[in-house]
Amino acid sequence: MKVNGEICTLKTPVSLSSFLADKGYGIGRIAVELNGDIVPKSAYDTTLLSDADTMEIVHFVGGG
């Protein structure tokens, strides 16, 4: 699997929510694009990731 341009090997398919938690991402301030489509937060638990996927994780940053 490619995550933000880097290769990440999965041993078994895993849910998006589990992957994000394992990598330390808080879902409150991110957006996830999986294989070219934005994944709604409501689908994180049911979206399964595999080694064939390409994912981009974007952090929202506040400022002023």
Structure in words:
Helix content is 11%, strand content 34%. It contains one helix and seven strands. Strands 2-1-7-4-5 form a five-stranded mixed β-sheet, with no helix packed on it. Strands 3-6 form a two-stranded antiparallel sheet. A hairpin with a 2-residue loop joins strand 4 (30-34) and strand 5 (37-39). The longest helix has 7 residues, at 16-22. The model has no long low-confidence stretch (mean pLDDT 93).
In terms of structural class, how would the helical and strand content be classed?
mainly beta
Question: Quick one: biggest sheet?
Answer: 5 strands, mixed
Q: Shape from CA axes?
A: globular
Low-pLDDT sequence parts: none
Helix content: 10-25%
Give the mean pLDDT.
93
How are helices and strands ordered from N to C?
EEEHEEEE
Roughly how many Å apart are the termini?
A: 36 Å
**Taking strands numbered 1, 2, ... along the chain, how are they ordered across the largest sheet?**
2-1-7-4-5
In short:
The protein is built from 1 helix and 7 strands.
What are the key terms here?
64 residues, mainly beta, 11% helix
